Amino acid sequence: MPQPPAPRDPRAVVFARARARAGIVPPYLLLRIAAAEEYYDVAAEAARRSLLRDEPMRELRLGGAHPGLLPHEHTRSTTEREGAATGAGAATEAAAPTDAERVPEAGTAEPVLAEPAPDRRVSDAEGAESLPGRLARVEGQPATGDAAVDQAYDGLGEVWALFERVYGRDAIDGEGSPLEATVHFGDRYDNAFWDGERMVFGDGDGEVFRGFTQSLSVIGHELAHGVTEMTARLRYRDQSGALNEHVSDVFGALTEQYAMGQDADAATWLIGEGIFTELVQGRALRSMLEPGTAYDDDVLGRDPQPAHLRDYIVTDADNGGVHLNSGIPNRAFALAAVEVGGFAWEHVGRVWYDTLTGGTLRPNDGFAVFATATLAAARDRYGEGSREVRAVANGWDAVGVEPE
Amino acid sequence: MEVEVSRSGGLAGLRLTWTVEVEDQPDPEEWVLLVERLPWSETPPAPPEPDRYTYRIRCEPHEATLAERQVTGPWRDLVDRVRDVAEPSRGRPNADGRAAPSRAPGPVTETDAPPAE
Ligand SMILES: [Zn+2]
User: Fold this and answer.
1) For residue B56, which residues of chain A lie inside 8 Å, CB to CB?
2) Which of A85, A168, A230, B35 has the fewest C-beta atoms lying within 10 Å of its C-beta?
3) Per-residue pLDDT for chain A (404 aa), expressed as one digit of tens each?
4) Could you name the CATH architecture of A11-48+117-398?
5) In chain B, which residue's Cα lies nearest the Cα of A272?
6) Taking ligand 1, which is a single-atom ion, which protein residues have CB atoms under 5 Å away?
7) Active site includes A278?
8) How far apart are CA A241 and CA A304, in angstroms?
9) How far apart, in whole angstroms, are the C-alpha atoms of residue A313 and residue A305?
10) In angstroms, rounded to a whole number, what is the distance separating the alpha carbons of residues A7 and A63?
11) A93 counts as catalytic
């Protein structure tokens, strides 16, 4: 379906420029510059391309701009752009060997290096509830024009970039397995989930929710469930379940911050920004920094997330409140990241990644054991008495979790 | 006879509860038949899938908790019927797992939904 040219959120452009200049421009100034920039102009495009040359994919997605549908793609084909953006250089045939689907553009890209590249496969359930659905776009293929397909494809590339470029983890299993997603699941289906093999996204009912591929943090959240399943295997119930949810929120938020070049101060710390319709009084599903403040709506009620252990919600529903009590560790993480400052994926994010993959966590571990593990990971990486260790300790302290 | 379907979980962690007073329905006999045919005692616990819904279905004296993946066949028929005739009420879960009443987005079936605060 044809889309009008999508005006980019000018803030995104300016953030990208600021990152190119090592992030020295204060945010208030960025916003003033941004106000003067109506559209994604040629200069910005040039700046973006230069960023992409040696930086991970930074498709600066705010306000529903889809990289695959952007104007100003006059210099390079979509396939080349995707390849360059993800560091693939190309080699799509090699990456997706035996699929029945041919990759029409594969021949136009020249294989360069055997660098890790994502292997994305997006399917379309076409409104049914059966999985996986019809294969709609595989690695290297150009944008389809279906917004959900293309958003999922681009989003998976961004999550892949965070894990591979920053943490050296190639895909969910660390061995470059395919990243699989299904979109258009169900009829006005109000959810997104991880089924153990793939990410699944509904279109939303149009009244409360828009499509769930609109939010990069949601895509990162779902993929991170796969990483947790492959690593710490936190049991999806009660405190360990809330930690499982928390880890997904962490890497969901970091995906967005990394893609947009946002430091901890500039970050929204919101999960699922932009997936509520305009009828809903709310910014997002959750706020990591200020749990309980993401929405306050006549119909939905108020964001019920606790921000402190004393407000922990005991319930049978939602696997023991996993989406509620995740607010507690979420706030600890966000506070620590803000205290350290700079890019959260580089420090506190790394500590959390080390914790998740370090092999010390057990599936039933709760908040206190997890907090202890993050402190140990921070010490291992940054040393006793480092500001990272202090910030992590302060974060847990602020939410009432005492490491064991 | 009252049928209550409560859906929790999901990425958003929002809880919805639909309640139907069977006697108020134009076809109460069909409802009774449907409820009696449900395999109430054959719902093995399913491993949770992250962000998927959990359904709790009640009709005294029966109660079953089902993963979304298990809501098929007659269970799905029931859930679809309930959703067709009742507007959901929303609310945060309490300690006993029942939804606290809150304002519903449309007309509420009044049987089990006290007015909002
Ligand atoms: Zn989740």
Assistant:
1) 317
2) A168
3) 444 444 334 344 333 433 333 333 333 333 433 433 333 333 333 333 334 333 333 333 333 333 332 333 333 333 333 333 343 333 333 333 334 433 444 444 555 567 889 999 999 999 999 999 999 999 999 999 999 999 999 999 999 999 999 999 999 999 999 999 999 999 999 999 999 999 999 999 999 999 999 999 999 999 999 999 999 999 999 999 999 999 999 999 999 999 999 999 999 999 999 999 999 999 999 999 999 999 999 989 999 999 999 999 999 999 999 999 999 999 999 999 999 999 999 999 999 999 999 999 999 999 999 999 999 999 999 999 999 999 999 999 999 999 98
4) Orthogonal Bundle (1.10)
5) B12
6) A 245, 248; B 50-51
7) no
8) 17
9) 9
10) 9
11) no
All structural domains of chain A with their residue ranges:
11-48+117-398
Cβ atoms of A340 and A387 closer than 8 Å = yes
- A278 CB burial (10 A radius; 0-12, 13-18, 19+): exposed
Asked if A287 and A373 count as a contact pair (C-beta separation under 8 A), the reply is: no
Q: Which chain A residues are within 8 Å of B91, Cβ to Cβ?
A: 301
- Judging by DSSP bridges, how do beta strands A296-297 and B2-9 pair with one another? unpaired
Helix orientation angle between A238-260 and A216-230, rounded to the nearest 10 degrees: 130
Active-site choice (A222, A245, A273, A388)? A222
Nearest by CB to B11, from A191, A244, A317: name it.
A191
CB of A345 closer than 8 Å to CB of A256: no
**Cβ of residue A201 closer than 8 Å to a chain B Cβ:** no
What pTM was estimated for this model as a whole?
Answer: 0.76
Question: How many Cα atoms are found within 13 Å in the side-chain-facing hemisphere of B40?
Answer: 11
How many whole angstroms from B71 Cα to the centroid of ligand 1?
Answer: 20
List the structure tokens of A290: 């200020």
Q: Is A323 on the interface with B (CB under 8 A)?
A: yes
DSSP string, A107-172: GGSPP--------EEEEE-TT-S-SS-EEEEETTPPP-S-HHHHHHHHHHHHHHHIIIIIH--BST
Please give the residue of chain B at the shortest CA–CA distance from A131.
Answer: B69
A122 contacts A223 by C-beta, under 8 angstroms? no
Residues of B in contact with A192 (CB under 8 A): 11, 51
Ligand 1 centroid, distance to A324 Cα (angstroms): 11
Residues of chain B with a CB closer than 8 angstroms to some CB in chain A:
6, 8-15, 48-54, 56, 90-97, 99, 102-105
